[in-house]
Predict the 3D structure of the following.
Amino acid sequence: MLFSADDHMPRLDWFRRPDGSDGLNGIHGLAHTLRVAQHTEEIAEAIGLTEQESKAAFQAALWHDIGRTNDRPDYYHGAKSAGKVVGMELHVGLDTAIVELALYAVTHHCGSEEHAERGAAYTSDPEATLRVLRVLKDADALDRVRLGDLDPRFLRYEFSKSRINRALELLEVIR
Amino acid sequence: MVLPLVLVITSVLTLSFAIVYTERRVRGLDRMTMQRDECLRYAALFAAHRSGDAKAVEVLESFGGEDDEAVIHARKDAFEASEAEAAVDRVA
């Protein structure tokens, strides 16, 4: 993994929800988070993201679902996750360019890609922003194998489409 | 005879396009606004948790209306209004 052990790796309290419940062991909990992070790292390397983009995608994967308040369709949970990152100061100490790329991907990983693409025009590096977002979305989608309803047609990168077996393998390894 | 008919059809098509386009833009903006509000509220909420400001936590939680059905439905409506979002959400 890109980060061996530091302050920016997942902590158990990240998954604590405002109502006091704990999402740690749910379908969007720690194991899902770590599998998505592993996918982002491998996809990023395969498609040639820069080091900065790779780190941003990895960090985004670690943060992407921590704002969820339930495991059902949770509208705007990407935005809530980004807000939670800032509120808990999880971003402190990271490179600001990485933080910007990661928080954009976190915010827009659920919902309309059309709006995400429109908004990316206002970021510091629109193309990098969208690359990081798409890697996160593919990584997150690949872990739908845990639910048995992954549809490869929705994946954005050809490399992602070749990773179904890897996704099943990660599902066994990271529980 | 043909010209008025063409004009009427053109006008109707133009008006329809304008309505659809405007509606989509407004819904898009609604969505962006709600997204921004949720992000800011959560930032404030968890900052309040960190600082141990119980009153701020209480206010921010009530403002968000996590248990308020009307708020949940408003979020759902705005979310689902965007084109192809249901399909996109499947892979989120």
Q: What stands out?
A: The two ends of chain A are 17 Å apart (CA to CA).
